[in-house]
């Protein structure tokens, strides 16, 4: 089990992540987590350069905070289990930055007035990596650290070839897989996940409408109903395979106690999927 955190409140999420970070690294930089969240607050609220506030309704700032909390909790569990490779303070810091940046590809410039950032759904991963490089280069970050963050971000791509990502170390690869795991579980474990699925459909539909990256691709779902009906299969057929096989079952570090205790994230996802199945079954034929 874990403490409830209001993911609509960036300060609450920051406090939880900072507590986890300092419990793992008591000599860590106490200014790091507040600075990372301050930067994220800037670019998601339209206070950075010529970028607008995020206007994608599913992939909003709360979505990022859900994944960020999951990542921090997973890393804490892994740290307590003394799993190899051991996570360094810098590895944690790079991973935190990566998940805070992983959906910045939905941000629009101020002169981009057509549609919402959801139109970039199919290209948002590469756009996020580019945004991270632009932002962090301005802050004077070293090129290898920026590359590490970009490589971690790439792990969130739906059809990404993980073998093709040029990881610079085993720790970096592990952190990328943690990020990919947390991105999936963080959103699907949310209490309003089922209620937000129609909003997710609207994002896919907008991406198809704006031809991102090509009109021929179209929307992967024919309707909101089609997305709802396919969502249980997405969990059973895609996500479970992804987090089990591709990401090496890292989610088990969320088991409390480790290794055989219950996994609150998986439990909540399965509760959501069961609730969705009941709703679909109750619909008139």
Notes on the structure:
The protein is mainly α and 285 residues long. It has a single domain, classed as Catalytic domain of cyclic nucleotide phosphodiesterase 4b2b. The chain has ten helices and no strands. The longest helix has 23 residues, at 224-246. It is globular, with a radius of gyration of 18 Å. The model is unreliable at 212-216 (pLDDT under 50).
Question: What is this structure's SSE topology?
Answer:
Elements lengths: L9 H15 L7 H13 L16 H20 L8 H13 L22 H15 L4 H12 L15 H19 L4 H17 L14 H23 L17 H19 L3
Helix pairs in contact: 1-2, 1-3, 2-4, 3-4, 3-7, 4-6, 4-7, 5-6, 6-7, 7-9, 8-9, 9-10
Helix-strand category: mainly alpha
In the CATH hierarchy, the third-tier topology is known as Catalytic domain of cyclic nucleotide phosphodiesterase 4b2b
Mean pLDDT: 95
Name the poorly predicted regions. 212-216
Give the distance, in angstroms, between the N- and C-terminal Cα atoms.
Answer: 39 Å
Q: Give the overall shape.
A: globular
The strand count comes to 0
Taken together, the total number of domains comes to 1
| CATH H-level superfamily title | 3'5'-cyclic nucleotide phosphodiesterase, catalytic domain
Helix amount: 55-70%
* Helical segment count: 10
Q: Would you list the SSEs in sequence order as H and E?
A: HHHHHHHHHH
């Amino acid at each position: 089990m874990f403490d409830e955190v209001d993911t609509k409140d960036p300060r609450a999420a920051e406090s939880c992540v900072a507590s986890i970070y300092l419990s793992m690294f008591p000599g860590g930089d106490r200014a790091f987590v507040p600075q990372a969240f301050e930067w994220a607050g800037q670019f998601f609220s339209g206070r950075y350069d010529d970028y607008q506030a995020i206007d994608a309704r599913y992939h909003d700032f709360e979505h990022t905070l859900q994944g960020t909390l999951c990542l921090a909790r997973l890393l804490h569990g892994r740290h307590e289990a003394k799993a190899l490779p051991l996570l360094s303070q810098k590895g944690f810091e790079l991973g935190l930055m990566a998940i805070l940046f992983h959906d910045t590809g939905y941000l629009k410039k101020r002169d981009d007035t057509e549609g919402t950032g959801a139109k970039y759904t199919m290209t948002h991963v590469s756009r996020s990596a580019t945004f991270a490089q632009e932002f962090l280069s301005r802050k004077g970050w070293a090129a290898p650290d920026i590359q590490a963050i970009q490589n971690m971000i790439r792990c969130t791509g739906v059809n990404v070839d993980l073998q093709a990502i040029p990881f610079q170390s085993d720790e970096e690869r592990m952190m990328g897989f943690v990020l990919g795991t947390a991105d999936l579980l963080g959103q699907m474990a949310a209490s309003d996940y089922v209620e937000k699925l129609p909003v997710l459909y609207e994002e896919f539909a907008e991406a198809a409408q704006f031809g991102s990256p090509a009109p021929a691709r179209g929307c992967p779902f024919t309707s909101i109903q089609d997305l709802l009906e396919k969502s249980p299969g997405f969990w059973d057929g895609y996500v479970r395979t992804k987090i089990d096989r591709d990401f090496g079952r890292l989610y088990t570090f969320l088991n409390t106690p480790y290794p055989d205790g219950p996994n609150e994230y998986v439990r909540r996802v399965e509760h959501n999927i069961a609730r969705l199945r009941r709703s679909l079954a109750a619909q008139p034929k």
